[in-house]
């Protein structure tokens, strides 16, 4: 049977905005976070502590973390690829940090400028220092079903990096389809490998919707009992180092599907649609979310 409850992490402020060419004002980012928590999101990925030369949109990370109004019961996470990122992030008091590796060597090089092995060596002290500070560490594993530079990625390659991340103490494994090429059986095969090393409660899916497969893939994961997913309000986003990759699955679309399945998310879909309309308006475009558009047209 399917899970009765699902936790969604809205990664819109981070994954959604990181690839936007036009600078988005810090206050608009903070407002987006406010609207998401108003809608009932309990986990929000706020920003990333990466090089501003690589990802200029995230250069205001400290300001965004300062500007958000934190609500009890909501967890705020940030990306930290190395000690420099963690050291900058710690004073802003994130509830969780994310270290991000790839199942493909080529993507690791393009995204974080090092090999998979080097990335694990960089993450190890980050994980230790985060734990020392009482902060949970999520791991993201990019290109778990396909790589924009290498093509197919096998479950064996996924499992190899899952084990490396588990070996340095990463608490949670997010299986990511960076370029949205996954289809249900392939995604299940990758998930299975994560579930060999992490308990069900500590595995999540992160699906980009480039090929329109994300909802189907989430359903395939629900069938395995996975009940934790990343999604991005309004379907914003894309990775700067994965050409042509579009946004994450839209949070509105996921909530609509889960509502229809009778699965509780604690999210108010109308307020979520408003959050999507707000940020789409800031960006000067109509929401990518099909559900968002349909509900706005009502
Ligand atoms: P590097 O150039 O290899 O690092 O970058 P370095 O240690 O050689 O340092 C070079 C310069 O960067 C130095 O500055 C450092 O101070 C600075 P300079 O002396 O030249 O002025 N630097 C930093 N500045 C700020 N914050 C930092 C930091 N680290 C070094 N943390 C690095 C390595 C990882 C930093 C770089 O490659 C980078 O920032 N990459 C961007 C990665 C990124 O943000 N990608 C998108 C997010 S991941 C994603 O979207 C996938 C995900 O959604 C899952 C999925 O869909 O697959 C999570
Ligand atoms: Mg992503």
From TrEMBL:
<comment type="similarity">
    <text>Belongs to the HMG-CoA lyase family.</text>
</comment>
<keyword id="KW-0456">Lyase</keyword>
<feature type="domain" description="Pyruvate carboxyltransferase">
    <location>
        <begin position="6"/>
        <end position="273"/>
    </location>
</feature>
<dbReference type="GO" id="GO:0016829">
    <property type="term" value="F:lyase activity"/>
</dbReference>
<keyword id="KW-0479">Metal-binding</keyword>
<dbReference type="InterPro" id="IPR013785">
    <property type="entry name" value="Aldolase_TIM"/>
</dbReference>
<protein>
    <submittedName>
        <fullName>Hydroxymethylglutaryl-CoA lyase</fullName>
    </submittedName>
</protein>
<dbReference type="InterPro" id="IPR043594">
    <property type="entry name" value="HMGL"/>
</dbReference>
<dbReference type="Pfam" id="PF00682">
    <property type="entry name" value="HMGL-like"/>
</dbReference>
<dbReference type="InterPro" id="IPR000891">
    <property type="entry name" value="PYR_CT"/>
</dbReference>
């Amino acid at each position: 049977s399917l899970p009765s409850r699902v936790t969604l992490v809205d990664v819109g402020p981070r994954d959604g905005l990181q690839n936007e060419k036009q600078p988005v004002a810090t206050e608009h980012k903070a407002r987006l976070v406010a609207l998401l928590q108003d809608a009932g999101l309990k986990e929000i990925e706020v920003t990333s502590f990466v090089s501003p030369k690589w990802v200029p949109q995230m250069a205001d990370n400290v300001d965004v973390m300062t500007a958000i109004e934190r609500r009890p019961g909501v967890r705020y996470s940030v990306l930290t690829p190395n000690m420099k990122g963690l050291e900058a992030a710690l004073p802003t008091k994130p509830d969780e940090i994310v270290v991000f590796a790839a199942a493909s060597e080529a993507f690791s090089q393009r995204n974080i400028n090092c090999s998979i092995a080097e990335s694990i060596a960089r993450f190890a002290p980050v994980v230790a220092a985060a734990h020392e500070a009482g902060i949970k560490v999520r791991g993201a594993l990019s290109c778990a079903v396909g790589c924009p530079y290498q093509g197919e990625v096998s479950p064996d390659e996924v499992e190899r990096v899952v084990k490396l991340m588990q070996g340095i103490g990463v608490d949670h494994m997010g299986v990511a389809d960076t370029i949205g090429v996954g289809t249900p059986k392939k995604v299940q095969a990758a998930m299975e490998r994560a579930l060999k090393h992490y308990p069900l409660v500590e595995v999540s899916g992160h699906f980009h919707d480039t090929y329109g497969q994300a909802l189907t893939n989430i359903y395939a994961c629900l069938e395995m009992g996975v009940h934790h997913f990343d999604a991005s309000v309004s379907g914003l986003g894309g990775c700067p180092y994965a050409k042509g990759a579009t946004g994450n699955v839209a949070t509105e679309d996921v909530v609509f599907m889960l509502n229809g399945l009778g699965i509780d998310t604690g999210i108010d879909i109308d307020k979520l649609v408003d959050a999507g309309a707000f940020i789409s308006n800031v960006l000067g475009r109509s929401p990518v979310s099909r559900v968002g558009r349909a509900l706005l047209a009502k």
